[in-house]
Write a structure and sequence with these properties.
Keywords: Coiled coil. The chain has one domain. It is elongated, with a radius of gyration of 17 Å. It has 2 helices and no strands. The longest helix is centred in the last third of the chain and has 37 residues. α1 runs antiparallel to α2. It has 74 residues and is mainly α.
Length: 74
Amino acid sequence: MESVKQTLKEEKQALSTELQSVKTTLRTVEKRAEDDGQRKDSLLNDAGFYIDELNTKMQDQEMHLRKEMEERTN
């Protein structure tokens, strides 16, 4: 059970780090795209979609690991 908790913690940290990286990239893209309104909107939409996908992946992984932890404790 302790290993499952550790795995959950590591996976959550990895996804959190990846999400932070995406947010940093989004800020960089926004700054670079200030002069090009249409391109900015497109890039921001793409980045927003990627962030949503990453959040979903993070939630799915957490749910999966919680179920695994519950199964191991029963």
